[in-house]
């Protein structure tokens, strides 16, 4: 009976703006949990796979030299065990005396301190490319999703995003090779594009008041923030104590809940095109004010995107950080992002969104420059907190400005403009890890942080142009004509009536 009442309530509340906001909140939460849960897992997991493969190769070469009947130990850095070839016996590495030179080289704390610093630095590029694949695919998909939402509505794309996300999560859980992990990450990009573009467009269409829209988008970005907040520590703790598969299976279960909610509330089988034709995507991309807002989103998020693959590796290299610490290091940034988006979702409208974004960009730059000065995990708390809080200021200001600029300068259809906003977000998370991994390998992590910090600080003054953007000429003329109809040329007025 209770289940029936719940379903009945959901059907009655289908057009409720709050319920739509909750669905978008959950969709962004799951997307960004999957985005960040891999941050502490993948660098360590790939390094352990490579190290284990090297040890196996060394032992195989030694087996060819020795008697075929002799037993040889294979040390696994993944679970810190020694396996005896030729038998099913397995023991902890601390309980056995190594019988081969390869095993003898490994210290007791091999799970904490990496064996080869050069090999660890080489992981920067592999991990960076893997992390960037999601954003790159999302970047390529967004230009198609934005116009598609104008034609078929927002319900079907956001549900398609859930289905693709669920498949990607299952692939992450059971993939054990770099190629399959790369494919799962790329597939996530398609699902994320559907969810974020359709979700933001849906909010902009149901919250027409500028102040209410800013508040609603701030709450939705809180879901993004919560995903970023929970993802890294959740992934690192689960990976350390349960294994790689468990966190992804839990995310898959939560995704099923979100999919069921969408089925009842949004009715994704219905096609509901926009009532008016939106401004073409290329026209929006040529608008300098939209480009400035997109640039702030891109460069602000690029800072944390560069840190995601490189900070765990730098911590392993300089701090001998344990697996759980690799994710917990991002906790201050996640908490402060959640705080920032909730505070400035409303406050940015009162203080001026351009000013909020300008201050945020400067604080991002200063904070990332301070990151390499940390000597241990506790030294990362303050700069990472500053990074997250400032990015929250930028995102909660620029996302509502995108909708406002379309209302002011173009046709009030939001799929394409939020596709541009998501493209900007994705460019940060595509270029950040791929370029960041290469720079960190070449000149080091401290210089990488300095470069992106300086870029953010120099970009900040451009936000001044968003202080009072001009409206579209036709809309201004129409507005003036409405105020002063007598001054209008009679022939021109007759032509407009026709």
Automatic annotation (TrEMBL):
<feature type="transmembrane region" description="Helical">
    <location>
        <begin position="326"/>
        <end position="347"/>
    </location>
</feature>
<keyword id="KW-0532">Neurotransmitter transport</keyword>
<protein>
    <submittedName>
        <fullName>Solute carrier family 18 member 2</fullName>
    </submittedName>
</protein>
<comment type="similarity">
    <text>Belongs to the major facilitator superfamily. Vesicular transporter family.</text>
</comment>
<keyword id="KW-0770">Synapse</keyword>
<dbReference type="Pfam" id="PF07690">
    <property type="entry name" value="MFS_1"/>
</dbReference>
<dbReference type="InterPro" id="IPR011701">
    <property type="entry name" value="MFS"/>
</dbReference>
<keyword id="KW-1133">Transmembrane helix</keyword>
<dbReference type="GO" id="GO:0042910">
    <property type="term" value="F:xenobiotic transmembrane transporter activity"/>
</dbReference>
<keyword id="KW-0325">Glycoprotein</keyword>
<dbReference type="GO" id="GO:0015842">
    <property type="term" value="P:aminergic neurotransmitter loading into synaptic vesicle"/>
</dbReference>
<keyword id="KW-0812">Transmembrane</keyword>
<feature type="transmembrane region" description="Helical">
    <location>
        <begin position="246"/>
        <end position="266"/>
    </location>
</feature>
<feature type="domain" description="Major facilitator superfamily (MFS) profile">
    <location>
        <begin position="20"/>
        <end position="471"/>
    </location>
</feature>
<feature type="transmembrane region" description="Helical">
    <location>
        <begin position="381"/>
        <end position="406"/>
    </location>
</feature>
<feature type="transmembrane region" description="Helical">
    <location>
        <begin position="158"/>
        <end position="183"/>
    </location>
</feature>
<keyword id="KW-0968">Cytoplasmic vesicle</keyword>
<dbReference type="GO" id="GO:0043195">
    <property type="term" value="C:terminal bouton"/>
</dbReference>
<keyword id="KW-0472">Membrane</keyword>
<dbReference type="InterPro" id="IPR036259">
    <property type="entry name" value="MFS_trans_sf"/>
</dbReference>
<feature type="transmembrane region" description="Helical">
    <location>
        <begin position="20"/>
        <end position="42"/>
    </location>
</feature>
<feature type="transmembrane region" description="Helical">
    <location>
        <begin position="216"/>
        <end position="234"/>
    </location>
</feature>
<feature type="transmembrane region" description="Helical">
    <location>
        <begin position="444"/>
        <end position="466"/>
    </location>
</feature>
<feature type="transmembrane region" description="Helical">
    <location>
        <begin position="354"/>
        <end position="375"/>
    </location>
</feature>
<dbReference type="GO" id="GO:0030672">
    <property type="term" value="C:synaptic vesicle membrane"/>
</dbReference>
<dbReference type="GO" id="GO:0005335">
    <property type="term" value="F:serotonin:sodium:chloride symporter activity"/>
</dbReference>
<dbReference type="InterPro" id="IPR050930">
    <property type="entry name" value="MFS_Vesicular_Transporter"/>
</dbReference>
<keyword id="KW-0813">Transport</keyword>
<dbReference type="InterPro" id="IPR020846">
    <property type="entry name" value="MFS_dom"/>
</dbReference>
<feature type="transmembrane region" description="Helical">
    <location>
        <begin position="287"/>
        <end position="306"/>
    </location>
</feature>
<dbReference type="InterPro" id="IPR001958">
    <property type="entry name" value="Tet-R_TetA/multi-R_MdtG-like"/>
</dbReference>
<feature type="transmembrane region" description="Helical">
    <location>
        <begin position="413"/>
        <end position="432"/>
    </location>
</feature>
């Amino acid at each position: 009976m209770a289940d029936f009442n719940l379903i009945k309530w959901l059907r009655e509340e289908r057009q409720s703006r709050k319920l739509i906001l909750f669905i978008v909140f959950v969709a962004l939460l799951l997307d960004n949990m999957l985005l960040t849960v891999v941050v502490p897992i993948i660098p360590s997991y790939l390094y352990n796979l490579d190290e284990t493969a090297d040890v196996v190769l060394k032992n195989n070469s030694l087996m060819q030299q020795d008697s075929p009947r002799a037993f040889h130990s294979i040390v696994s850095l993944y679970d810190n065990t020694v396996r005896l070839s030729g038998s099913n016996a397995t023991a902890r590495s601390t309980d056995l005396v190594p019988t081969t030179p390869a095993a003898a080289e490994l210290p007791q704390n091999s799970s904490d301190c990496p064996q080869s610093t050069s090999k660890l630095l080489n992981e920067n590029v592999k991990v960076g490319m893997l992390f960037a694949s999601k954003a790159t695919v999302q970047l390529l998909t967004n230009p198609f999703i934005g116009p598609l939402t104008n034609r078929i509505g927002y319900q079907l794309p956001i549900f398609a995003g859930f289905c693709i996300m669920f498949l990607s999560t299952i692939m992450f859980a059971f993939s054990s090779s770099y190629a399959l992990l790369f494919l799962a990450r790329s597939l996530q990009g398609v699902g994320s594009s559907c969810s974020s573009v359709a979700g933001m467009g849906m909010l902009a269409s149901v919250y027409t008041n500028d102040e209410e829209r800013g508040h609603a988008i701030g709450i939705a970005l809180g879901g993004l923030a919560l995903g970023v907040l929970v993802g890294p520590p959740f992934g690192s703790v689960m990976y350390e104590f349960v294994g790689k598969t468990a966190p992804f299976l839990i995310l898959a279960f939560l995704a099923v809940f979100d999919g069921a909610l969408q089925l009842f509330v949004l009715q994704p089988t219905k096609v509901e095109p926009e009532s008016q034709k939106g401004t073409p995507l290329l026209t929006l991309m040529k608008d300098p004010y939209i480009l400035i807002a997109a640039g702030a989103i891109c460069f602000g998020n690029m800072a944390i995107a560069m840190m995601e693959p490189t900070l765990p590796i730098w911590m392993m290299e300089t701090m001998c950080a344990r697996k759980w610490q690799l994710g917990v290091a991002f906790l201050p940034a996640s908490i402060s992002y959640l705080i920032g988006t909730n505070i400035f979702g409303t406050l940015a409208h009162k203080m001026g969104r351009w000013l909020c974004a300008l201050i945020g960009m400067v604080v991002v730059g200063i904070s990332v420059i301070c990151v390499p000065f940390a000597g241990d995990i506790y030294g990362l708390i303050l700069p990472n907190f500053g990074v997250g809080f400032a990015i929250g200021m930028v995102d909660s200001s620029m996302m509502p400005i995108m909708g406002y600029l379309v209302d002011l300068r173009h046709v009030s259809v939001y799929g394409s403009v939020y596709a541009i906003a998501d493209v900007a977000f994705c460019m940060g998370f595509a270029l950040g890890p791929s370029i960041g991994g290469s720079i960190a390998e070449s000149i080091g992590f401290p210089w990488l942080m300095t470069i992106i910090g300086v870029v953010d600080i120099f970009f900040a003054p451009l936000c001044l142009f968003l202080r009072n953007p001009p409206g579209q000429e036709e809309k201004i003329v129409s507005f003036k004509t409405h105020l002063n109809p007598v001054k209008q040329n009679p022939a021109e007025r007759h032509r407009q009536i026709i």
